[in-house]
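Slide 14.
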Amino acid sequence: MVKLIRLVSDSDGNFRSAFGTDLTIKEQAKIALLNLTFKTSIENLVINNTNGALVTNTDYPNASGDGIGNIAPKQYDSSNIDELASDVEFGLNGTLDIPPSVTTRNNISSQYNVYLEDDKYRILFKYSPFINPLVANTNTGTDPQYPIEVMVKGTATIDSTNTTIVNQTITTIQKAVGAASANDTYARFVCVEGYSFSKGSGLITLRINDSLDNASGVPDNGGVLGLTDAQLTNDNTEVLGTDMKVQLIYNRPTENYFYSINGGTPIDSGILPSRVSLAVEPDDLLHDIMWIQRQKNYITFGVWQMVGGYLNLPSGNTWGNGTPNVTEDFDEVDLGDIATYRQVQDAAGTPIYNWWEANIDGGYMWNIYSSKPVLPAGTTPVFARARTNLETGVVTTFSGGTGVVTYTPAQMPTMVGTPVATESRFDVFKAVQSSVYRPFVVARGASTNIKFDLFNFSVNPYIGKAGPNNANERWDMTNRGGESALDNGYRDILGGDAGTLKDVVTRIDDDTEPDRWEETYKTTILMNNSIWNGLGFKQVGTNPNLYTGLFGSIGPNEDPQNNSIIEGESIPTYLLSDNFMVVSDTLKLDSFDASDFQYGKFSPNSRVKGDLAGRRKNILMTIPVNDNDTGVVEFQTNTPIFIDINNALAQNLKNLNFRILDKDFQPLNLQSENAIMTILIED
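Slide 15: predicted structure.
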């Protein structure tokens, strides 16, 4: 005689049943599992502030390449385990920095990628090529150097001009000739269609090649360097909106730089443009460069510039103060402790004196004192302030005194003092993991008022096939040779003399530093072993918690030449086959376990590892599951396997309790749906 019993579990995988009447089984009864259905909840990976720590090194074994980061705390189960790869990728990219020292080579302008291919995860490290996207690639052969023409521009309103200067291609951006200035509009811009900014470490630059003041007094004179998370296209009707994540705003030489974040109201940076006019500073290698950097998953931005020095105001160059037939003079008589020049006002034969202090707030500002200043600075109150127009030499007071007064020189003053390279960082914000950022340039002023160049950016190297023949897989895309961002003037800046912008600009360069990309260096990742296992990487080494994955070399002699890759050994944990067990808590079954497994510190079966030893375990059935990524287990047998209960006498059962365990005898976490089991008892 065979009895059929249907049982339903709680969500913890325990089947607890109580019968209202006695359930009698005869002596020497047998029991079998007919079918079982349940759905697991994969909750075996919890990342916290401890096990989520990351250490990468892009220059192994040199310690200079170390980068520190973390994976955000999170609990993974069957509903979100597919997010693990992207979270690890974001964490790895958060270790990449842009250090000031050139001794740290490979993490400057680079990116990690974690991806699934053939059911195995791969972690890839690549350089993010620093390119001039306005130069079309002329090499269309078997080994193109970098993507072909990735830049999009409003052809009706924007011009880009390529000029060859001493074997360099200098690309300028300005409005088309005849196109009018635009007051604070974003309808005319240059963008990168289909390509995005590096998600690891990277740089965007834009230099103010030449600028003139149109004297309009409104924001229609300069332009904008920015980042957007919108997919821009070559559409002259498209207008940038709140999707602008970063804006660096330059308007005219006498107005401070402004910036905004997330489309907010522009904020005064407090930084005045320094060298932005060829008429005033003919050496464009000293002109201001606006920049945006991504490092450690933060985006920073600001300006590199030469500051210091001042326009001389000496005797012999008379200055009209805006009133007809009235002139002023400056001398170096009786200056006092902190004054640079003494201003002499001819007031009907009775001179009036003010004292001017130079090199305030960027080098072209002046403090004006109505009495001879003395140390310490601040003892004598500031009477007014003035600002120098570098294009004309005109000095304009803008506070104090009797109102605005302009001083126009009879001849253009010369520069006094030695400028110093500086980096001004305006602000910073945290990059959003799901966002894809793209650079853009807006030209507001007419072609006669503003000209930009040195527009370069670190392109995301995982954007797919760049041009025919997978150009982004090749070393040359990193500017080792041929046309590149370095041919957009960047090479000259890096090769400049000490005391120039070379002192502060980010060194993305392999031509003047030939050993920078050294093939003997490798890439390593130090990450908790549970995370490696979750991605299908086996434990290596003796440390059960931390595993260092050693990549292959990266450098010009490698193939692919700009890659460093590590590949998982197996299908990820949540895709693996598994083996579940149904065990009885109320019946002693004639079944055994002979594995070398410790059942837990406080388990009666706990023992020191050693020889395999058979131990009675009330196992009703083992259930293998193959390549199950849904968590659903459906077991059905046409030939039940009966296990002896070995009861010598007839037995009245008031309870029948079972559990579902994993292969390590650990309880399962099931989805909210109840598990259902059918068992057979044979007398």
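Speaker note: The chain has four domains: 2-41+577-682, 45-129+517-573, 151-307+420-458, 310-416.
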